[in-house]
Amino acid sequence: MNFDSLSILTIWTAVAIYAAAFIAYAFDLAKRSQVAADAKTAVPERELVGATVGGSGAGTAVVAGGGKSADAAPTRFVTARIGTALTTLGFVFHLAGTVLRGIAAGRVPWSNMYEFAMMGTLMIVAVYLAVNIWFDLKYLGTFIVGLVVVLLGGAATGFYVEVVPLADPLKSVWLVIHVFVATLGTAFFALAFALSVFQLMQARRESKILAEAPKTGPRFLATLPNSERLEGLAYRFATVGFILWTFTLMAGSIWANDAWGRYWGFDTKETWTFIIWVLYAGYIHARATRGWRGSRSAWLSIVGFAAVLFNFTIVNLFFKGLHVYSGLS
Amino acid sequence: MSNSRSDQAATLPEPQDPNATDDVNATGGDRATDPLRPSDHIDSEADAGVESPRLGVVGWLRWGWRQLTSMRTALVLLLILAIAAIPGSIFPQRMADPNGVTQWKVDHPDLFPILDGMQLFDVYLSAWFSAIYLLLFLSLVGCVIPRIKHHLKALRARPPRTPVRLGRLDDHRETVRTVAGEDAQAAAAQSIAIAEKQLRALRYRVERYDDTRGFSVSAERGYARETGNLLFHLALVGVLVSVGVGGSFAYTGQRVVVQGTSFVNTLLDYSSMNRGRFVSDDALAPYRMTLDSFDVAYQPFDPNKSSSGQAGDFAANVTVSEPGQKPHKADVRVNHPLGVAGDRVYLLGNGYAPTITVKNAAGDVVYHDSVPFLPQNNSTMMSMGIVKVADGLPEQLGLQGFFYPTAAPLESGALTSVYPALVNPTLTLNVYAGDLGINDGTPRSVYVLDTGAMTQLTGGKTGVASIELSPGQTTALPNGMGTITFENEAPKGATDLSQSVKRYVSLQIHHDPSEQWVLVFAVLALAGLVLALFVPRRRMWVKATVVDGAVRLEYAGLARGEDPTLGAAVEDLRDGHARLLDADGSTTPEAAPVPEALEGPTPDGTPVPEALEGPTPDGTDPDDSGNPRK
Ligand code: HEM
């Protein structure tokens, strides 16, 4: 058995463990719903403590609720921690699979689509786990791990290519730097995306609560931070992602100037990298613009990440251009 | 989360004193030191909203300018820019893929003129795309200039007066200390002096505000946030201007060079050349470059592997002669362009250039050249080329050739190439006689043979077999016109054919003096961005009052813009101050500290007793909301 087949085996093991983690996280959400329901029946008035409708319209401070009450504290969210433990285990296999692929190829394991996907999802999980050391973001688990299972499983099924020597234009330190930073930036955008989705859900729930609607949507939301805080977090991830993306764009230009004889030529991949950059600049502006902070800006973060995924899949596979590194024919 | 006024209004705990909010507003809205923002910025004072312009041209102009330089306009223009860039990735662009445009025209002859009229094949040079980004940059400049003026003033301004009721601020802490000596007032003053030093060491700009009610120090830091923001936006302008101006001084030329030959860097010697408006005819540095040899490595032959025959490690080995210097050897490789006299020389492509000799019936050489053949397939280097013999034969002759570095017959009997290196080099030629169409002066590509006015003599439907040659072989041309030879270029004594055919390279020579400027501005933009997004701009206050003979110390912070770690910073300040005060000794910690319960609202507005702020038993963050652990 050579390194590459070992790598494939390890990657599939990682996918299986991630799938298990996904299930654990899904149970966690279900349980959160339960906790939220219990808390609601126990202390219904807690739900809206201190909620004031912001007169200036910048946002409403609806307390994110029941889960924070001391009642349910000790046994709370054990399944989420199981999910995180499994994710960590999956990450170890994922990392091993990536390193093995690198050894098999004798170079950095990020130079065709299969490897980009492997590396990109590795970064998503790495950032997710690392950030969980400082903030509790386990409520994103289902979302993030689900995304990783789909992308990594999909890549291993559809994008796998055997190890071939690097094409000349790829033999550059910029392959190491540019692609690595791009995948890292993507990971931050992915987390911002997940948070923005939850932000939108939470904002809907909050407005329903204020409207005293009988149904307020998924109950697990009650155990999550309020929409404003979710937005703040999403924004921080997006800004880190944006800086990394700006660097990616610059490093790519420097590389293009060496490899293709010009630093910028609106090649399809360059164009989409630029579009993504502008979209996130728009997002950052939107958050600072009256009338756009809140749900509207969240949509921009979602559109931005959709463009990132589009750039990786559709543009790589179907658009013509100089970046023909998918390794697929 | 931003602690802008509007947020505070929403998160204040049960109001006890309705006027208190004004107090905070007065502090928060210190116009003199706050960064200047467009009026629809989230941190700006809500103005009357859609106020209609006063009548008169000036009024309208002012109104229009305000609209153009508003956050909303910038945002909308950014989004339009993103959308406008999309078609350029869908339709082939002349600047990136001219052949693609030609092909598109062939495929959609009806649609092409319409789309071309909409400049969809030149999106990034189009009037509409340019209009969008020029408006955006106009808006940017209009927005940034007043901010620069304002910021320069703010940089010299003093931190604002300490608010009367610090307790109204979100991030507020309080301690009481026992006075060690006799004079409580002196101890209070001393503790503020210490805080002042402490804040200064933390790179705050500080100002003392002492009055009858107590002693206080006001501090502000993070001016670099606004500096960074302005730097970022200005650097973008710098990038745009560099690109725009630089294009006028740039030139790019392409040139094919066959092994053993040279090219001279003059306009005449280029097969194609694009130059900016301000590049004069004699702007090119006159150097000469000779292609000595070309290196390439092919992956070994293995029909089961997709990498079989993959080429790599290309290197064009050249000799460069610059005027007044000794000729020197250099190489041009992919990713490693060669710098010569301010130009950059790139290796764009390579191929085989079979050397062909044609003699007439009398045996005189009428044609002798190494003809660059264009590779049709990179993994086998099957290549195509054209030979045009204009003079010396009874009729003009056009030869359409295929070159197979490693020829092998297909089942049909036709030849193909199975490997890109020279293992079994074979040249096949179809001969056409007639008018080459080059006499009337119309420019013709050397890679295209217009057979419209010619008769095919070999191959195809003629029934006469195509000419097929190996290196060193000679054969007769049809109709007794003469002979043709495929020369073997291998050095004497060579044992195989691996050097029997010359190589050629296509080089791109590029000169763009603006590159460095673009890079400098891009790096400045990145640096500005990091400052703008990560430096917290905040105000801090420490206030000491004498209460019942003890010193009551208050600490409060106020964020200007995004500042998620403000709460932690206030606590760090308090703790650091306590240590300094302990060391100083003029006050001592009170034996039983004031209960801190309910001392301030949590970030989302619930008053949470301090006791709940520690980690919960399961180790999750108590408020479950991403507050950094302290
Ligand atoms: C080329 C177009 C532009 C791009 C790519 C861009 C990008 C950005 C980015 C990335 C930021 C975040 C950095 C920071 O917060 O300091 C930002 C902030 C900002 N931009 Fe722009 N910008 C552009 C044009 C403009 C224009 C035309 C205006 C004026 C209306 C403007 C006003 C601002 C303001 C006021 C901020 C600060 C936002 C805040 O307080 O968080 N920008 N811009």
Question: Can you offer a commentary on this structure?
Answer:
The complex is a heterodimer of chains A (329) and B (630). Chain A is an all-alpha fold and 329 residues long. Chain A has one domain. Helices cover 68% and strands 0% of the residues of chain A. The longest helix of chain A has 40 residues, at 3-42. The two termini of chain A are 27 Å apart. Chain B is 28% helix and 27% strand. Chain B is built from 12 helices and 27 strands. In chain B, a hairpin with a 2-residue loop joins strand 25 and strand 26. The radius of gyration of chain B is 39 Å and the shape is elongated. At the A-B interface, helix 6 and helix 7 of A face helix 1, helix 4, helix 5, strand 8 and strand 11 of B. Protoporphyrin IX containing FE (HEM) sits between chains B (37-38, 41, 69-71, 74, 78, 136, 139-140, 143, 229, 232-233, 236, 529, 532-533, 561) and A (281, 284-285, 288).
Short characterization:
The complex is a heterodimer of chains A (329) and B (630). Chain A is an all-alpha fold and 329 residues long. Helices cover 68% and strands 0% of the residues of chain A.
What secondary-structure arrangement, pairings included, does this model have?
The complex is a heterodimer of chains A (329) and B (630).
Chain A: H1 3-42, H2 78-105, H3 113-134, H4 141-158, H5 173-210, H6 227-259, H7 268-287, H8 295-318
Chain B: H1 5-11, H2 20-28, H3 57-68, H4 71-85, H5 87-90, H6 98-107, H7 111-117, H8 127-156, E1 171-179, H9 184-201, E2 205-208, E3 215-221, H10 223-248, E4 251-258, E5 262-264, E6 272-275, E7 288-298, E8 311-321, E9 328-333, E10 338-340, E11 343-353, E12 355-360, E13 365-370, E14 374-375, E15 383-389, E16 396-404, E17 407-409, E18 415-417, E19 426-434, E20 454-456, E21 467-469, E22 474-476, E23 482-486, E24 502-511, H11 515-534, E25 538-547, E26 550-559, H12 566-584, E27 587-589
Antiparallel strand pairs in B: 1-26, 1-27, 2-3, 3-25, 4-6, 4-24, 5-7, 7-8, 8-9, 10-11, 11-24, 12-13, 12-23, 14-15, 15-16, 16-19, 17-18, 19-20, 19-21, 22-23, 25-26
Helix pairs in contact in B: 4-8, 8-10, 9-12, 10-11
Bound molecules: protoporphyrin IX containing FE.
